[in-house]
């Protein structure tokens, strides 16, 4: 039988320098945010629009605690730039499948940094005439904002540090971590 090539430690593992948000704190906050959303959308169906890939873990955990009826859909956007920052040039890689006209759309995002990705996505979604369009974001780095975007429901505001885990990646790695960690800056 072929031997599995098991890597116990990721080569970049030693660059995770701090646990910013342990799993327990994330889940506690998600329950609070879900309760707020459930109150606001009482009696209405929510089209929950998960922004791939980063928001998939957050969306899965959030929707378990939502009381109103939920229809789940996905959108994938790519923004060009370096491994750790956005250029602002955004492209839709996988479009929404649901019809959004007349429906209550709640976009679920992992993190708002410059705001450019969300700004582009919201402008695009507005053209489809939803009855309402709101944003739920797990993390926000307000000091990095280049364009104003409305965040209606927020998990945590954080400082300007590059974070990974709980869906967030560095070069596609670390999405599977159950906590949110901080990556050390690359030394020159
Ligand atoms: P923005 O367009 O600058 O707001 O960037 C938003 C996107 O950049 C997020 O959806 C993430 O995919 C990515 N991003 C921004 N900051 C981080 C971070 O600290 N860790 C991982 N991804 C990030």
Number of strands: 9
Strand content: 25-35%
Task: Tell me, briefly, the overall form.
Answer: globular
Q: What is the number of helical segments per DSSP (H or I, 4+ residues)?
A: 3
The CATH class, by name, is Alpha Beta
Helical content stands at 10-25%
Give the CATH topology.
Rossmann fold
Strand order of the largest sheet: 4-3-2-5-6-7
State Rg.
Answer: 17 Å
Examine the secondary-structure arrangement and name the CATH architecture: 3-Layer(aba) Sandwich
Unreliable runs: 1-6
Order of helices and strands: EHEHEEEHEEEE
Mean pLDDT: 90
The unique ligands bound to this protein are: inosinic acid
Structural class: alpha/beta
- Span between termini: 45 Å
Instruction: Summarize the biggest pleated sheet.
Output: 6 strands, mixed
Tell me the domain tally: 1
Describe this entry's structure for a reader.
- The structure is a single chain.
- The strands form two sheets. A six-stranded mixed β-sheet has the order 4-3-2-5-6-7, sandwiched between helices.
- The protein has one domain (23-159): Rossmann fold, CATH 3.40.50.2020.
- The N and C termini lie far apart (45 Å).
- By secondary structure, it is an alpha/beta fold.
- The protein is globular, with a radius of gyration of 17 Å.
- 20% of the residues lie in helices and 34% in strands.
- It is built from three helices and nine strands.
- Bound molecules: inosinic acid.
- Inosinic acid is lined by residues 54, 79, 86, 109-118, 162-164, 168.
């Amino acid at each position: 039988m072929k031997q599995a090539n098991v890597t116990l430690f990721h080569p970049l593992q030693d660059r995770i320098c701090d646990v910013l948000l342990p799993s327990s704190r994330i889940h506690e906050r998600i329950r609070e945010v879900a309760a707020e959303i459930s109150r606001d959308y009482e009696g209405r169906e929510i089209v929950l629009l998960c922004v791939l890939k980063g928001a998939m873990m957050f969306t899965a955990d959030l929707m378990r605690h939502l009381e109103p009826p939920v229809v789940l859909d996905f959108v994938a956007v790519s923004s060009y730039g370096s491994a750790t920052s956005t250029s602002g040039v955004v492209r839709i890689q996988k479009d929404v499948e649901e019809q959004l006209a007349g429906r209550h759309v709640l976009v679920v995002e992992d993190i708002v940094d410059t705001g450019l990705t969300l700004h582009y996505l919201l402008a695009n979604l507005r053209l489809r005439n939803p009855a309402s369009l709101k944003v739920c974001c797990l993390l926000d780095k307000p000091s990095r904002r280049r364009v104003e975007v409305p965040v209606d429901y927020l998990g945590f505001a954080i400082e300007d540090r590059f974070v990974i885990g709980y869906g967030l990646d560095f070069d596609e790695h670390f999405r599977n971590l159950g906590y949110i960690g901080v990556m050390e800056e690359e030394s020159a």
